Amino acid sequence: MDGTASLSYYFAAMQKQSDRNTIIKDSEGAIIKLNSHQKKVYLLFSGHDLGEGGISILNTLKKHNIKGNFFFTGDFLRNKAFREIVKRVVDEGHYIGSHSDKHLLYADWSKRESLLVTKDSFQRDLSQSLQELKAAKATTGKWYLSPYEWYNKQTVQWCNENGLAVINFTTGTGTNADYTWPQLSNYRNNDTILTRLFEAERKEGLNGNLILIHIGTDERRKEKLYNELGYIIERLHQSGYSIERLP
């Protein structure tokens, strides 16, 4: 069975489990909600060249007995400075998946259908990242978080051909803005981000939401959202949500 057939079988099986097990995709084909009729959320943590928040995140997850979902580039996995983080992610049973090898930008920001990579260069980069996961004693899993969380229908299809499903943060959660710093026009401080997240919960609920937090951010951002992870977890639990590892 090739990657595409295997992936199709996997999602067909998932959808047969229950009518309540609902998968929501965006216009490009990436999954942005899982189990959208259940009070479950999934915490995603991505890392490329920065990772100063990794130990803090892992300690918080361990304190609350929660499994997170980590997506690392090959560069992150090769970086000796992050070796302890990677080892703990694997040893402590968190999900670990690919975030590409070199954090390539796949598509033009303003013209999304316009590719900036060839299929060959995409495949080489992806294959290298999967080799690095194997070297870290991690399985490749079924899920893929595209670099920059930016992709198009073509790169989603290429991932499917490799047996991987592209996922992305759920629109409206807003936590992905934690990479910004004050000099940027789109800067969002922690209070603004947290207000948006829990306002979305109040208005629409967060059932099946994928909530992204960066494992490291630019030093120009002095307040780090990962330092609020304990608060986020407690608020989610108080609202009746279970925090899940990706299947």
From TrEMBL:
CDD domains: CE4_NodB_like_6s_7s. PANTHER family: GLYCOSYL TRANSFERASE-RELATED. Residues 39-244 form the NodB homology domain. SUPFAM superfamilies: Glycoside hydrolase/deacetylase. It comes from Niabella ginsengisoli. This is Polysaccharide deacetylase family protein. InterPro entries: Glyco_hydro/deAcase_b/a-brl, NODB_dom, Polysacc_deacetylase_ArnD. Transmembrane segments: none annotated.
